[in-house]
Design brief:
The chain is mainly beta. It has one helix at about 1-10; strands at about 15-20, 25, 25-30, 40-45, 45-50, 60, 65-75, 80-90, 95-110.
Amino acid sequence: YAIERILFRVRRAQDITSPASGAGNTLTLTMPTPAINPTSFTINNGTLFITEGASPPIALTGTHIEVTNFTVTRLAATPPAIHFHLDAQLRNRSGTSQATINRDETVSLSR
């Protein structure tokens, strides 16, 4: 769900604000709808969050998923594009790691 949410938002964005170049651990998008502008994806204490406009952050990952890495790289492309890498641990109720998740995605704005 979290990966699809990122892909969906990037495709509908007007621009990629952050990272402006190179790589970072935050993705910020300029959105065409004022209520969700800007839209940001960040990691805090192992949870992936989305913040849309002035709304408070919403967790995109549950309590049994610990995100250990979220790296966003701005690509030199037209239309603007990013590559992102996400690492996470799926944990059972006692907190023991049950599986590792590694995802790489490349996506561009749909213009």
